[in-house]
Amino acid sequence: MIEFRNISKVYKMGEVEFVALKGVFITVRQGEFLSIMGPSGSGKSTLMNIIGCLDTPTEGFYYLEGENVAGLTFDQLSTIRNRKVGFVFQNFNLLPYATAYENIELPMLFNGKKAGARRQRVSELLEMVGLSPWARHRPTEMSGGQQQRVAIARALAMDPPIILADEPTGNLDSKSGHEIMEIFSRLWKGGRTILMVTHDPAIAAFSQSTIRLLDGAVQQDGAAT
Amino acid sequence: MRMQLLHLYWNEFRKRRKKTSLITFAIAWGALSLLLLMSFGRGLSNAGSVSFKGLGSTMIMVTRGQTSKPFQGLPRARRIHIHMEDLELLKRQIPGIALISPEANNSHDLSYRGKESNRSVNGVYPCFAEMRSQIPEAGGRFINDLDQEKARRVAFIGWSVARELFGDTDPVGKELRIEQTPFTVIGVMKKKQQSSMYQGPDSETVYIPFSTFCQIDFQRFLDRIHIRPAHPGDALFMENQVRRVLGRKYRFADDDANAVNFWNTIRDYETGAKIFKGIEMFLSVIGALTLLIGAVGVTNLMYAVVKERTREIGIKMALGARRRHIVMQFFLETFAIFFKGTLWGALIAFNIVSLVNLVPVGYDDFGIEAYLLRPIFSFDILIVFLVVLFVLVFISGIFPALRASRQNPIEALRYE
Predict the structure, then answer these.
(1) CB contact B325 to A (< 8 Å)
(2) ipTM higher than the 0.85 cut
């Protein structure tokens, strides 16, 4: 499903070059729940960004569902982000002016789904994350856990096969974090592929396997062992 | 989907309306200035052309002159007078004369029931009225062919003369005495704007048939001949023809500019119209520049808005927004600011123009207010305004919108 072949990412800041990833090989099969761990600056986020098509590798090949992502235009990458991956961020990244309902609806607006289909999908998702009564509330009126649940619902709006979560519990207390992880477990059991960056071994324990990154290279591939 | 997306954009825009109110005011001010300057400029232009036509439109006046160069052994500085026979000569020799009228005038004492005055009395042909834009008030008429043929003692009087001698009573049908000779008043001139004149405005003049004039005031020479060419474009050609024909008769050179004098209202009108058009354009440019300042402000604001919302742009990109979604949003916001400002500006401008037009304008003394108090909106002003507006919307909106859409999604997401 996700295949990295010798992926490198180099950031250039003037004269200085910063190697974020060097020669990474990863294969993630469909339905896997993978944690990515590692200290700050080890390249976790870069890895996630490349998988999510927010960033492109400097070198190497990335196949997403058998398709080579290199060389696609911004708009083609947008379509992939819209249909194939759902992002869940550490700081939720909800639109502050929009209600929970509108936030969840957003990916479908960029895709041009019909109004009826959108309405049905949003209510399904609100139901699923247990926030139906909160549909008309704005993010500022909700707790962190609720906001993150809205974000998960939003990530699922286009029913993508892959969920990318970057420290999804990082800004939450342990109880809310636990609730969030239970939702992820349910999604995984429902057949979705989940990749999650985390610091916390207790959170990583929810996943099927773990890979560790250090200085841009994979240390130990849990999936392989 | 489009509507829903527009709804979202609208909501996000509304949340920030307080921040945009000042710039909306700037746009309103700019639109107001542009519209007012254009409509006042057009009013000025119109008043100019109306009062130019007040003397008369599309006509050439020929008056006596003095030769400025020797010709065929004759010395320079000979006086050249125009005679009644010249009228027939010109008509016969020059094709393309539509109307022609002699004019002779002299100051005479006028009286009506003890009220007295001294005004210019002019003898003319019936076609004179048409050339000089003289329209009778309801109930009256100008001199006609029969008056001329029978040398009737009838008079057509300017409105100032009418007020001076007759006060509030209707002069038509009353007996006006010119040097004790009784004349019947047949019409009063309708008020008109007149910016150029000789021997006083038409409003202070009495017109009688040329044939009658010859009976009460014998003059050897004509004061003027009025000619209207069949085609206004022939104005200069007509001038040269008249000079050539008269030159042959009175023996002066074809290129002697001073032998007879011309007052060519067609050329005057064209020059005047160009000057007024120039002023109108100048005013429009000033207005457009005022609006441009507002537009620069909008661009500035939009750059700030783009920066402020970098993170939201990143979020939208992560959720699958294409470049055009982002461009569209910021472009539409620019448009919305312009739209709101322009709406207010136009509303105020229309009201000011309507109000100013309610102020009465006097016709008696030639006042500046006729130029300043008659602004008009017309279709072409609207078109020019919209074109200027859309160019400014496009220029001020497109660059911030493009910058927004060209951001790197990761950096946008990280932006605090």
Answers:
(1) yes
(2) yes
